[in-house]
Write a structure and sequence with these properties.
- The chain is α/β, with parallel strands linked by helices.
- 39% of the residues lie in helices and 22% in strands.
- It contains ten helices and eight strands.
- It has helices spanning 16-22, 27-30, 53-61, 74-86, 124-134, 158-173, 184-190, 208-224, 226-233, 239-253, and strands at residues 43-47, 66-71, 92-96, 109-115, 135-146, 152-154, 195-205, 259-270.
- Strands 1, 2, 3, 4, 5, 6, 7 and 8 form an eight-stranded mixed β-sheet that branches.
- α6 packs across α10 (239-253).
């Protein structure tokens, strides 16, 4: 198989402020649409597994099966292995992989899962074709991605408006599609999948603890992550503008009436038998 041409750069990187969000994710809060379809014997591929919290949850749900978590970044897999080891899971393994060219035979897995991956890749249709190739006939492809333009919050904030416009511009300059959630069904159909169930799900941050956590990680991410570096290096913002956006996040986080909702598109695709 030819090497894929890399056309996208992972916008966020793996700064602590990014991993603060990634390690919060569970199968329950990030893959609920898939869970009713899981069986104890299933073999699952978890693409873009990051620090492995969802991967470990999936492994616990298929005790007679096996989960393989893959990511492009070798260093993050060490954290994923530690996550699985800390939970005493023996039916999980991890490997470096590129979703555009998976190093697995055809018809290998019962389920292929990807959470917040396709918004960051250069060719999401090609990625879905690879998922279709490695899943068994009758198996499932489960994909969930945020849709940034559909994110909404209260109260109104010019600073958060500026954050959203800036983030979408930086993500697209990196080759990704920040409004992936609404496009998942269309991409799946273009990839040749015919049995596609499209749904949506949300994360909501409204309690004082949720607001402090969500606003804090985005304020820190805006100032110190790879996203911040790419915003400045790409000429999308200067450091003063980033400080302004970070301040808007922190101000919103203190609002007693603050509320933020993240919309996700979801697709559950069954490969033809």
């Amino acid at each position: 198989m030819p090497e894929p041409r890399e056309t996208a750069v992972y916008t966020h990187g793996h700064h602590e402020s990014v991993l603060r969000s990634h390690t919060w994710r569970t199968a329950a809060n990030s893959a609920a649409y898939l869970l009713p379809s899981l069986k104890p014997h299933m073999r699952i591929l978890d693409i873009g597994c990051g620090p492995g919290t969802i991967t470990a949850d999936l492994a616990a749900l298929v005790p007679d099966g096996h989960v393989t978590g893959v990511d492009r970044v070798p260093e993050i897999l060490e954290q994923a292995r530690a996550t699985a080891a800390g939970r005493g899971l023996a039916n999980v393994g991890f490997a470096v992989a590129d979703v555009h060219a998976l190093d697995y035979p055809d018809d290998t897995f019962c389920v292929v899962h990807a959470h917040q991956v396709l918004q960051h890749v250069g060719d999401p249709v090609r990625a879905l074709r690879e998922m279709r190739r490695v899943v068994k006939p009758g198996g499932l492809i489960a994909v969930r991605d945020a849709d940034y333009e559909a994110m909404t919050w209260y109260p109104a904030s010019e600073g958060l408006d500026a954050w959203l416009e800036l983030y979408r511009r930086v993500a697209r300059a990196n080759g990704g599609e920040p409004d992936a959630g609404r496009r998942l069904k269309a991409w799946a159909l273009r990839a040749g999948l015919t049995d596609v169930t499209a749904t949506s799900g949300t994360w909501t941050f409204a309690t004082p603890q949720e607001r402090a956590w969500w606003s804090g990680l985005w304020a820190d991410r805006t100032l110190a992550s790879a996203y911040a570096d790419r915003a400045v290096e790409g000429g999308h913002a200067d450091e003063a503008q980033l400080r302004g956006v970070a301040g808007a996040w922190r101000e919103w986080g203190t609002r007693e009436d603050g509320w933020f909702s993240v919309l996700h598109g979801e697709i559950l695709c069954r490969k033809e038998a």
